[in-house]
């Protein structure tokens, strides 16, 4: 990755710095410009496409909130679509929909993204609308109250989805009161009293130019995109004095996790939802490529060990899979299963036995080859649309501090050895496991475990 420093000519005025990052044979030409404000613009030109995906990524998520602020980042995401000094909520949506485009946004624990997908000829409109709503939202008091109601309904709807709820329960079991253990949406107790002033303060303190990455992929011209972005942001709170881009989130100190625990949410459901897992590795850990292979072998597809054993051979669950979540300074590895309440014990016994077996004896050469093939195939197939390519640009810049070329990434997967995977399995799967359960149980039902 090239330096993100800001060059200054002899006269002292800051200027934008542009670099070509790659001319990838599996993609298009990737260019990166650092504006004087510290805001970064990355594009991938793909002339064969007739569409463009445009995203504004902010290095702010739910983990950046204090306890009383829980849900502020998600609340703000809703509010930015409600109106700016130039447009009302209807204009924001109708201008994009009038040209057949689409807009949306999402909040995670470490970043927030606002994006649009439009025909290439309508990119100037998308840039103007999206930059306007992110940079210059008014957060009107009536809109705060309207969206508060919407978010409370969203929280209630989430509570009615035990298959989703169990993942939040598991995160809380591992991280406790740390922000990584909290709900991204916040709770009724934190969202209800949140004031416009609190949200406004969060907005202006956190949504600063050095924290923002703009990414676009499709049939575009990089210089034109940069010019349009600068025009759209001129005179807004993101048109600021010269600054350097913010560094990506530090991995130190590592997040302290709780001792292994069992957490049960009693609920009269027809199906029990269980997650068994442990703290994993952070996203910059060199073992992350081996983890991808291990995850594929254990529970990453229909040929995986857990799917074959629990669903195909025994018919104990419709859905069973493993997954890894990775953050700047921590991670999770877990197995999920949804099954009849009466089958929970058998499913957990089989899961524990399989994890212990892989920890003790590792995987086979054939499984290694299959796991690597799944990793490479899913990555390349995932780059078949402009949205995924736009996301790759932004995440490389925002989360990793560099954009790894496709060929290099595939080579890193190819380089994973059987010893790499087995050593990781012995470490990871030998850790004490936490258990999260949503279903018709109480904690005493799992006390002996």
Question: Which features characterize this protein?
Answer:
449 residues; alpha+beta; Cytochrome Bc1 Complex, Chain A, domain 1; 2 domains; seven-stranded mixed beta sheet; five-stranded mixed beta sheet; 15 helices; 12 strands; globular
What does this 3D model show about the protein?
By secondary structure, this protein is α+β, with helices and mostly antiparallel strands. It has two domains: 17-233, Metalloenzyme, LuxS/M16 peptidase-like (Cytochrome Bc1 Complex, Chain A, domain 1, 2-Layer Sandwich); 262-446, 2-Layer Sandwich (Cytochrome Bc1 Complex, Chain A, domain 1). Helix content is 40%, strand content 19%. Strand 5 (102-107) and strand 6 (112-119) form a beta hairpin. 45% of the residues are buried. Mean pLDDT is 93; it is low at 1-13.
Brief account:
The chain has 449 residues and is an alpha+beta fold.
Quick one: CATH superfamily of the largest domain? Metalloenzyme, LuxS/M16 peptidase-like
> What is the terminal separation in angstroms?
48 Å
Count of individual helical segments: 15
Low-confidence stretches: 1-13
CATH architectural designation of the largest domain? 2-Layer Sandwich
Structural class assignment: alpha+beta
The percent of residues in helical segments reads 40-55%
SS strand fraction? 15-25%
Q: Give the quaternary arrangement of the chains.
A: single chain
Global shape: globular
Overall average residue pLDDT: 93
List how many beta strands DSSP finds: 12
Compute the gyration radius: what is it?
23 Å
CATH topology of the largest domain: Cytochrome Bc1 Complex, Chain A, domain 1
Characterize the biggest β-sheet: 7 strands, mixed
């Amino acid at each position: 990755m090239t330096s993100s420093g800001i060059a200054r000519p002899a006269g002292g005025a800051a200027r934008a710095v542009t670099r070509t990052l790659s001319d990838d044979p599996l993609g298009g030409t990737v260019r990166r410009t650092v504006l004087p404000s510290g805001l970064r613009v990355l594009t991938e030109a793909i002339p064969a496409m007739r569409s463009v995906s445009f995203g504004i990524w902010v290095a702010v998520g739910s983990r950046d909130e204090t306890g009383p602020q829980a849900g502020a980042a998600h609340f703000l995401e809703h509010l930015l679509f409600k109106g700016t000094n130039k447009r009302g909520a209807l204009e924001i949506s109708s201008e994009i929909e009038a040209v057949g485009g689409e807009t949306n946004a999402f909040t995670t624990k470490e970043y927030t993204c606002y994006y649009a997908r439009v025909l290439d000829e309508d990119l100037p409109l998308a840039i103007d609308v999206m930059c306007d709503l992110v940079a210059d939202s008014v957060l009107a008091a009536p809109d705060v109250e309207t969206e508060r109601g919407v978010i409370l309904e969203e929280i209630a709807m989430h509570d009615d989805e035990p298959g989703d709820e169990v993942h939040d329960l598991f995160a809380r079991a591992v991280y406790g009161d740390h922000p990584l253990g909290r709900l991204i949406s916040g709770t009724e107790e934190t969202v209800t009293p949140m004031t416009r002033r609190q949200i406004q303060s969060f907005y202006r303190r956190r949504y600063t130019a050095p924290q923002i990455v703009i990414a676009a992929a499709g049939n575009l011209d990089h210089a034109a995109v940069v010019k349009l972005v600068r025009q759209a942001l001129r005179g807004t709170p993101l048109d600021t004095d010269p600054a350097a881009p913010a560094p990506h989130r530090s991995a130190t100190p590592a997040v302290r996790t709780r001792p292994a625990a069992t957490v049960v949410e009693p609920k009269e459901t027809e199906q029990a939802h269980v997650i068994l897992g442990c703290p994993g590795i952070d996203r910059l850990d060199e073992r992350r490529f081996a983890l991808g292979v291990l995850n594929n072998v254990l529970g990453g597809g229909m040929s995986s060990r857990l799917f074959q054993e629990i669903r195909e051979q025994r018919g104990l669950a419709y859905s069973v899979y493993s997954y890894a979540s990775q953050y700047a300074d921590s991670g999770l590895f877990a197995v999920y299963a949804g099954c009849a309440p009466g089958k929970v014990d058998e499913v957990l016994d089989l899961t524990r036995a399989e994890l212990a077996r892989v920890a003790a004896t590792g995987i086979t050469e054939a499984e290694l080859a299959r796991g690597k093939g799944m990793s490479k195939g899913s990555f390349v197939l995932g780059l078949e649309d402009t949205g995924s390519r736009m996301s790759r640009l932004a995440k490389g810049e925002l989360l990793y501090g560099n954009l790894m070329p496709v060929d290099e990434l595939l080579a890193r997967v190819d380089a994973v050895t059987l010893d790499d995977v087995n050593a990781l399995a012995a470490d990871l799967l030998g850790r004490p496991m936490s258990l999260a359960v949503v279903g018709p149980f109480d904690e005493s039902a799992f006390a002996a475990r």
